[in-house]
Amino acid sequence: MSNIEPAHDLLDKVILRQLDLLEQKIKCELNIESNVNNGSIHLAKSRYIMGQSSVSTTKLPTESSPDFSASIMCKTIEEDGMTKLKLYQNKENTIVPLHWFGVLVPQNLHMAQKIFQTTLSYVVECSNIQLQLKENMKNINALRKYLNIISKS
Amino acid sequence: MALHAAVKGKLISVIGDEDTCVGFLLGGIGEINKNRHPNFMVVDKNTPVSEIEECFKRFVKRDDIDIILINQNIAELIRHVIDAHSAPVPSVLEIPSKDHPYDASKDSILRRAKGMFNPDDLVR
Predict the structure, then answer these.
(1) The pTM is what?
(2) Does residue B68 sit in helix, strand or coil?
(3) At what angle do helices A4-50 and A107-152 cross, to 10 degrees?
(4) What is the mean pLDDT of residues A13-19?
(5) Smallest CA–CA separation between A51 and chain B, in Å?
(6) Selecting from 1.10.287, 1.10.490, 3.30.70, 1.10.4030, what CATH number does the domain A4-152 have?
(7) Chain B interface, mutation test: which of A64, A73, A90, A131, most B Cβ atoms within 10 Å?
(8) In the CATH scheme, what architecture does the domain B2-122 have?
(9) Cis amide prior to B119 (ω within 30 degrees)
(10) Cross-chain residue pair A76–B124, CB shorter than 8 Å
């Protein structure tokens, strides 16, 4: 019986943490949304300057293009006993993505690139929050099972 | 292969509309590997749902991908496949696009997390 109270207190804490994580996740998604919108405006301005099809999927590499590596990747790290993702700059076999759209590209395309690079840090932050949410959900389920068992006995 | 990927870092893949793909690839996440497999898929109004589903499953199976970005409106089309994915890695992140703002009530993780707050369960 004496084990029930501490378990309930712990469950309260974990649930509060869950609500906090939900709020953080929504905030992060809204940051991604405003960045994607800003980036899209700069892509549209680039299209206006360069022509409709000059900034489109037709310029992206295809399966027949030579192989290359991503310049921005992510790495798994252990921090405070938790698995986290972190952005990582790769310098091997990379290319300059701006060159897909031409050599002298407008300033707006550079701006769009910077904005989408910033968005990537929000993406990783959001993924980390998601990982914590999943971990927290496991803890809540485990605590509920434990409480069920001890309340029956 | 796995060791090599761990040292090198892992990829962020994207399934999205034209602007989302162009933008994130411009950001530097795009890759065509030695087997000529890209880590991105551009979805337009003519793309069949089966193709999106197949691509998503392929990305989940790849051990060099840590994050899968997918536009929320596209995620809606393959919701059953996304809901079935429960492993922590790769992390599936539903992102808004310029035409479809973020809707928290549709997000797979948030729906799962909110589902835990069933009023009956919270009563002591």
Answers:
(1) 0.90
(2) strand
(3) 160
(4) 92
(5) 15
(6) 1.10.287
(7) A73
(8) 3-Layer(aba) Sandwich (3.40)
(9) no
(10) no
Q: Is B24 helix (H, G, I), strand (E, B) or coil?
A: helix
A134 touches chain B (CB under 8 A): yes
Average pLDDT over residues A113-127: 96
Strands A82-89 and A72-79: antiparallel
What's the confidence (pLDDT) of residue B4? 46
- Nearest C-alpha of chain B: how many angstroms from A24? 11
The residue ranges of every structural domain in chain B are 2-122
Hunting for tokens 């809204």 — which residue is that? A30
Q: Does A3 touch chain B (CB under 8 A)?
A: no
Inter-chain contacts counted by CB atoms under 8 A, chains A and B: 171
pLDDT digits (tens, 9 = 90+) for B64-92: 999 999 999 999 999 999 999 988 889 99
- B12 contacts in chain A (CB < 8 Å): 70, 72-74, 120, 123
